[in-house]
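Complex 531.
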Amino acid sequence: MRINEQLKQEIENRKKVEAKLRQSEERLELALRGADLGMWDWNVQTGEVRFNRRWVEMLGYEPDEIEPHVSAWKKLVHPDDMPRMEEVLKNHLEGRTPFYETEHRLLTRAGGWKWILVRGKVVHRDSDGRPVRTTGTHFDITERKKLESQLLHSQKMEAVGQLAGGVAHDFNNILSAIMSYGYLLRNKLRDDEQSRDNIDKILLLSDRAAHIIQGLLAFSRKQHFEFVPVKLNNTIRNIEKLLAKFIGEDVGLRTRLTNKEPAIIADKTQIEQIIMNLATNARDAMPEGGSFTIETEVVEIDENFIKTHGYGEPGIYALLSVTDKGTGMDEETKQKIFEPFFTTKEVGKGTGLGLSIIYGIVKQHNGYINVYSEPGKGATFRIYFPIIKAAAEKEKAKDLPDLSGKAEAILLAEDEPAVRDSIRKILEEFGYKVIDAEDGEDAVEKFAEHKDEIELLILDVVMPRKNGKETFEEIRKLKPGIKVLFTSGYTADIIQRRKILKEDVIFISKPILPNKFLAKIREVLEDERND
Ligand SMILES: Nc1ncnc2c1ncn2[C@@H]1O[C@H](COP(=O)(O)OP(=O)(O)OP(=O)(O)O)[C@@H](O)[C@H]1O
Ligand SMILES: [Mg+2]
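Predicted structure with adenosine-5'-triphosphate bound:
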């Protein structure tokens, strides 16, 4: 009887202990689950490892798919991360560090990589101090890593932008001076053909340098933009023909535009520039021909998007996607493409500014850009612009005002015959009377002949035999209050820096876009305060 009692007691006790153990095991499991941790328990001497369910599921495997041995585990470590992992582990096993802690990538079942934070500790050593048992956890930090690298990337771009902008600014001043002196010399050396030829070369090269600088300024967001409501689809439709010609017959151009007609706040010229730069790259990536597709969509950037991309403000966006079927890019190239002067093209073929300019423009429009590409599989660039509501209507109203002239006479001074002709044609087409001049002095003479008739001057800033400003000064003496519009191949930014014009003059940069140009002319002619 007493033995029976004892046995009963023992069974009771054992049950209690087992229940406690179960409880504590359950608590451990819940805690691990709550912290989203995978757990491992490694016998360092036999190599056996026990993984918990979360450990395997983190990587997308089924529990029995991973052999319970340390070699199976090591096989999953990214080769680039292996040396560091081995070193950190060795340091801990040999007792030089109190913990084993490292970050490395592990191969998922789907063939991708997950960033894992590994933490552990030797919990049992034999009498000689050799590690016997080591346990620890895994934590998935893939998302954090993505955010970190995104942040690093944007900080780097910011820094490069500041550097580029600073250099461009200083260099621009110097270049402006070189060009001004160049033009002075050119005027002086009119009759010396050889010297004039040399000067022309200097000016031509300076012009090219100015072009590069313009790109850098665009990248570093130091350019002045004119923001108005713009219908994205219209902008694409407007340049579609030109684009098709530009990319050549071997490349099929396709457009798929959303019927939602998204409107964005943008500088139309800059949007065109984005598309042209992307088209240039696509053309270069498809020397044998292929296809080039432009698409627009209306999409939402939500928390999910922000999580996967590591950037973005929630909201509704107009998405412009551009896809080519060209050579594509590897991961390493993709990392660098937005940096100024990064190019894989031969010397003389690319300056590496095309995408940097796009990056700068997109940022200034509060947008985002990303690229999807694999070697041999072409590339898709996606650009997100914040959408405006009800702005589409405004643009319509803006497009509507009558741009045609009321037979006003305009004196047009432009030394480049082709440019002069095209501007004259536009003006005549829209009902203006045009008197043209081929340089500054010619302009002054022609003005004197038609003094009473002429209501507006359109002067190229840079012309032989008197530049735009000098011409204007002289004509103003003949007729104070005459209205004027300056044109130039340089951006307003550069013109202002060169101090060629006062800040408040009205200025149009070439290439002249008829709509903008005609609207400016109406504005100037109808502005009573203009003197
Ligand atoms: N559609 C594309 N397909 C494949 N690679 C591309 C594509 N677009 C850009 N790249 C890569 O990105 C690099 C940088 O492009 P980016 O437009 O900034 O400069 P670039 O074209 O080399 O020179 P630039 O535009 O100044 O003439 C290119 O040299 C090329 O390696
Ligand atoms: Mg390019």
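The chain has a mean pLDDT of 87.
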